[in-house]
Amino acid sequence: MNRFDSQVVVITGGAQGLGAAMAQQFAAEGAIVVIGDVNADTARATADTIAAAVGRECHADAIDVTDSTRVTEWIDSIAERHGRIDVLVNAAGIIRDNRAENISDADWHAVIDVSLSGTFFCARAALPHMRANRYGRILSFSSMSWRGNFGQSNYVAAKAGIVGLTRTLALETARDGITANAIAPGLIETPMLASMDAAARDKLVSKVPQRTTGDPADIAEAAAFLCSPAARYITGIVLDVDGGISIGSSIR
């Protein structure tokens, strides 16, 4: 499919993991992809690999999404360079897990600033360009944890905030040809999951109704649909891509 032929897709946190999988998906479907990541070297390597694999433009820029001034300059420069911004994917995020009483001010602000404030700064910067073209797709990343999760007060607050932000953006852009949606991934095979203790990982997987982890490609496929023209009548939703874990426990 060529659902994104000549569209400009901006992905934060696109250097590895889910962001890289989505960059690959969008580029394979014809998009001009711009990866923004604080890890400049990894981002450039990912962009070069994708460009070589699919024969499409794929760019990488060093960007700290917590710097609102720099974010606005970056988004404006992309729009100036390519003439438009069609899709913004907010995938940048970090974790600093601990019990609430042991979370430092620094770890609280770090997670909120990257995941929640960064998502807002990028969306705010992209909206004028999308409104000008009367078209846009904003996709942000929550988590299955947004409903509450032990030892993740900062992360949960950020991911729940993204849900509220997404719903509000959807309302504010509904008449402008723009949609705003979120994905809440479950246990996906990423470097973060691979770093977990094996016993803890097995315990988590046992709670998934499908009894297996997901693949980054599962997220990329969901993202591509929500960001495609075909999803024009879908806005303000949180799509769980989690093998059923969000359904809850079963007495069986």
Could you characterize the architecture of this molecule?
This protein has helices at residues 17-28, 40-54, 68-82, 105-133, 153-173, 191-194, 198-206, 216-226; strands at residues 8-12, 32-37, 58-62, 87-90, 136-141, 178-185, 238-241. It is α/β, with parallel strands linked by helices. It has a single domain (8-241), classed as 3-Layer(aba) Sandwich (Rossmann fold). The longest helix is centred in the middle third of the chain and has 29 residues, at 105-133. It is globular and about 50 Å long.
Helices and strands in order, then pairings?
Layout: E1 8-12, H1 17-28, E2 32-37, H2 40-54, E3 58-62, H3 68-82, E4 87-90, H4 105-133, E5 136-141, H5 153-173, E6 178-185, H6 191-194, H7 198-206, H8 216-226, E7 238-241
Parallel strand pairs: 1-2, 1-4, 2-3, 4-5, 5-6, 6-7
Could you write a compact summary of the structure shown?
The protein contains eight helices and seven strands, in the order βαβαβαβαβαβαααβ. It has helices at residues 17-28, 40-54, 68-82, 105-133, 153-173, 191-194, 198-206, 216-226; strands spanning 8-12, 32-37, 58-62, 87-90, 136-141, 178-185, 238-241.
